[in-house]
């Protein structure tokens, strides 16, 4: 792993250390949905917890990777 189409190198170690917010709440919600056959009323508490966690995450606290256009331009510069 680490190469894609023999041209673009992807470093899996770089993405492995990313902070995954609300992962515990999402897992609890999905497990509840699976156990209750997708009954939203039975999983209302887990849904509230997940929504509260997602609302607490703000964009100003995240590190921006830049726009997709910038990333595509950066990749195409190396091919010339």
TrEMBL record:
Gene3D superfamilies: 1.10.287.2900. Residues 20-57 form the IMS import disulfide relay-system CHCH-CHCH-like Cx9C domain. GO terms for molecular function: structural constituent of ribosome. SUPFAM superfamilies: Cysteine alpha-hairpin motif (SSF47072). One of its GO terms (cellular component) is mitochondrion. PROSITE patterns: CHCH. It comes from the Eukaryota. Pfam families: CX9C. One of its GO terms (biological process) is mitochondrial translation. This is IMS import disulfide relay-system CHCH-CHCH-like Cx9C domain-containing protein.
């Amino acid at each position: 792993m680490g190469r894609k189409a023999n041209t673009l190198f992807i470093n899996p170690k770089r993405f492995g250390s990313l902070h995954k917010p609300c992962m515990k709440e999402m897992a609890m919600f999905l497990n509840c949905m699976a156990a209750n056959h997708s009954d939203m009323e039975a999983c209302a508490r887990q849904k509230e917890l997940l929504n509260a966690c997602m609302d607490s995450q703000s964009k100003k606290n995240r590190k921006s990777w830049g726009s997709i256009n910038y990333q595509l331009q950066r990749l195409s510069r190396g091919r010339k």
